[in-house]
Amino acid sequence: MTETIHHRICPLCEACCGLELKVREGRVISIRGNDSDVFSAGYICPKGVALKDLHEDPDRLRTPLIKRNGEFVEASWDEAFAEIERRLPPLLAQHGRQAAALSVGNPSAHKIGLLLYFSRLAKALGSRNVFSASTLDQMPKQLSSGLLFGHWLSVAVPDIARCDFLLMLGANPLASNGSLWTVPDFKGKAKAMQARGGQLVVVDPRRTETAAMADAHHFIRPGGDVFLLLGLVHTLFDEQLVKLGRLAEFVNGIESLEAAVQGFSAEVVATRCGIDATTIRSLARQLANTPRAAVYGRIGTCTQAYGTLASWLIDVLNALTGHLDEPGGAMLPKAAAFASNTAGQPGNGRGITTGRHNSRVSGAPEVFGELPMTCLAEEIETPGEGQVRALITVASNPVLSSPNGARLARALDSLDFMVSMDVYLNETTRHADVILPGLSPLEDMHYDVAFPQFSWRNHARYSAPVFEAPAGQPSEWETLLKLAAIVQGKGAAADAKRIDDENFAEDAKKLFGEHAQAVIDATRGLSGPDRLLELALRTGPYGDQFGRKAEGLTLAKVKAAPDGIDLGELTSRIPEMLRTPTGKVELAPPALLQDLQRAAGDLAQPVPDMVIVGRRDVRSNNSWMHNLPVLAKGPFRCTALVNPADAQRLGLADGSVARISGNGRSIEAQVQLSDEMMPGVVSLPHGWGHGLPGARLSLAAERPGVNLNALLDEDWRDPLSGNAVLSGVPVQLAAV
Ligand SMILES: Nc1nc2c(c(=O)[nH]1)N[C@H]1C(S)=C(S)[C@@H](COP(=O)(O)OP(=O)(O)OC[C@H]3O[C@@H](n4cnc5c(=O)[nH]c(N)nc54)[C@H](O)[C@@H]3O)O[C@H]1N2
Ligand SMILES: Nc1nc2c(c(=O)[nH]1)N[C@H]1C(S)=C(S)[C@@H](COP(=O)(O)OP(=O)(O)OC[C@H]3O[C@@H](n4cnc5c(=O)[nH]c(N)nc54)[C@H](O)[C@@H]3O)O[C@H]1N2
Ligand code: SF4
Ligand SMILES: [Mo]
Questions:
Q1: Is residue 355 part of a domain?
Q2: Residue 647 is part of which domain span?
């Protein structure tokens, strides 16, 4: 019996661990961390092991489904595309392009075919109604980074390998394994930092797993980060701790910034954020006086009413203390492929703009080509010119992942037509008329497009498919091109590979002019994501420039290194990576200074009796991995964590059921007493609430849990980024 060993990157979360799979007779027999991986060195979490369960899950869709008389029936790929052609183009012809919307979800960031080809479909469709998980997540950080550095994906990450003081807000990498920061084995790296005398300080309304290993932990009033951060910035100016260092000549706006934070001294903000002024001032001093230090914030700082301000102030703190773009501080990775901050003219660019159009119903501004996910339901419900009547979801489960999913579910039922590209018949895709399954990750090649731009170390790693794709099942990039062809009127019979060739030739002409044919010749034999990757690697910052730098990277070289190619520690990149029109780091963007008025008006806001926040567990992944046996076992995890003092006040016992109400809706959740919680704050994980009628998730339905988003307000957004407010939402708790 022959066994084969396969090395590949885990596509399930942002840590991008290198895995080692042992395969016998077409079956995975074991999955472990790949000790030789240059980037993750053997680290793995339980979800990596669950890739086997995902591959084998009998509920995972392998055949397209078409809904006929309210029931899903299996169909061939030709039948499924024909059904879409029969129904979608006439709708567009009658009601216009805006009548169709796209909703794209988290897993698309982890599949190269989806990430590189989604934009082909979006362009072909020509609708402004594009919604994504980004506005339930990181859009504030993308916006603030875009304003500061000139590009949406230029996000500074802690250089943890050399850092001696890390201030972390609203993140729990021990459970999440990191986000907008690709850092497998955060715990090991943080321990190494502590072992060399460094310190980790965590700011979170819950004493999380990460907080528990930290040198200090501070509770914060949910949504209060902007005030804490303003207090820190104010202290730096007030105590003359500002030192820009090397960055001084590359920074704009320091005077306007100083003026803008005048009203936010540590003493003024203390009550609002729940952290006393002495602590704020001493944190500011520690940050300023530690030569190698960084501030990092994640989802807790983004999914709140001042998400963009908080995200911005984190980088402001790094800059003012001389830690931005310095070793051991917050640095900007240099990815081997696909990074806009390595393309075009080094040192300046067009910068970013928002609000090129607005959503029809609420008038929410476009941000990075998208509208807020929380506007989707109203765009479907509200009659008039441009009403959304058709929807294509791509790896997206907003019925669970977006606030007030019940309203969205009703809206989805009222659509004239809905297509889902997905791997499950779940809470969202049950509303579709046609479901087109994606390949199992193990049947697909992979290269991370986005995450090397946020990585703790520069690297290039390629994964070949472990198994052949089932006969006749297209890759997701081919499915996206087919859908693009259908909405462009080219017909369901259009050949995806041929369209891909044509698109590539067109792009090559635009990019390389007279050299286009040479590029086409040099990449002959490749197609799809492989060909785009070859082009990106060879023309990228480490590339062979099509032979001009013989030692440079090519796809063949990356493929020949199954453990990856290490491209070294992070390096200083300012000013070269800037793409702002001025060629400077814009520390004081006018839109952000203006938004400070809103924060000022909110300084005296009283403390609500009880607010709710979310949490993550290492055995979950948003809304879609509760059907996998290795992850589903063990203690029930969808519990409401309540501080014992609150519980006593409200008459709640450990293990009892509490009714949690908010925004006129309520759910019933099992109470778990925990002094990890800040008094006045309850924590419930998101992504639960399975067992809805029509879904096919047999294991998940056995312990469905309840949905946090059922309580949240779909109209509460950070106005700048359009991001949903998912944290710090007032609720009432009562014994049942
Ligand atoms: N209250 C609250 N809500 C939250 C959050 C929170 O912290 N609190 N977090 C938010 C965040 S950060 C995010 S990113 C979103 C995530 O929300 P979504 O973007 O909706 O993502 P998931 O919930 O992960 O659902 C992923 C969908 O993709 C499908 N899928 C999985 N693998 C594949 C594949 O290979 N191909 C295809 N085509 N489909 C696939 C799954 O079946 C599922 O339908 O949730 C957000 N919602
Ligand atoms: N195991 C697992 N891993 C995941 C995911 C998953 O669902 N499960 N999801 C992936 C995705 S899509 C993402 S975006 C990342 C997210 O990665 P992280 O940002 O690390 O996400 P969380 O673990 O939810 O940690 C957020 C923390 O913010 C705290 N918090 C809530 N409100 C506030 C606030 O107002 N201020 C402050 N300072 N803190 C607050 C919460 O208590 C929580 O501890 O994780 C990714 N990795
Ligand atoms: S931490 Fe777990 S889920 Fe994330 S990439 Fe690594 S093995 Fe996969
Ligand atoms: Mo996310």
A1: no
A2: 608-735
CA of 133 to the centre of ligand 1 (A): 7
Tokens of 320: 């003012």
176 lines ligand 2 (CB under 6 A): yes
Q: How far is the CA of 303 from the centre of ligand 2 (A)?
A: 10
Q: What is the 3-state secondary structure (H, E, C) of 205-233?
A: CECCHHHHHCCEEECCCCCCHHHHHHHHH
Q: What was the pLDDT predicted at 700?
A: 98
pLDDT for res 1: 73
Kindly report, residue by residue over 155-178, the tens digit of the pLDDT. 999 999 999 999 999 999 999 999
Number of domains the chain contains: 3
170 by Cβ neighbours in 10 Å (0-12 / 13-18 / 19+) ranks as buried
At residue 46, φ and ψ (nearest 5 deg) are: -60, -25
- Provide the CATH number for the domain around residue 38: 3.30.200.210
Nearest C-alpha neighbor of 48 from the set 97, 14, 10, 99: 10
Ligand nearest to the CA of 13: 3
Q: 160 and 279: one domain?
A: yes
Q: Of 583, 600, 617, which closes a domain?
A: 600
Does residue 322 carry a pLDDT above 90? Answer: yes
What tens digit of pLDDT does each residue of 616-641 get? 999 999 999 999 999 999 999 999 99
Per-residue model confidence (pLDDT) at position 458: 98
**Residue 73 belongs to some domain of the structure:** no
> 725: helix, coil or strand?
coil
- Whether the pTM exceeds 0.70: the reply is yes
The rounded mean pLDDT for the chain is 98
**Does residue 395 have a pLDDT over 90?**
yes
Q: Are residues 585 and 613 in the same domain?
A: no
The answer on 581 and 613 residing in a single domain is: no
Assess whether pLDDT exceeds 80 at residue 11: yes
Which among 453, 463, 408, 417 is positioned nearest to 149, based on CA atoms?
453
> How many CB atoms are closer than 10 A to CB 508?
18
**CATH number, position 661:** 2.40.40.20
Q: What distance in angstroms lies between residue 323's CA and the mean position of ligand 3's atoms?
A: 29
CB 249 within 8 A of CB 327: no
37 and 157 in a common domain = no
| C-beta neighbour count of 496 within 10 angstroms | 21
Is 458 inside any structural domain? no
| Stated length of the chain | 736
Q: Are 589 and 673 contained in the same domain?
A: no
Residue 490 burial by CB count (10 A; 0-12/13-18/19+): exposed, middle or buried?
A: middle
393 contacts 105 by C-beta, under 8 angstroms: yes
Q: Is the CB of 137 under 6 A from ligand 2?
A: yes
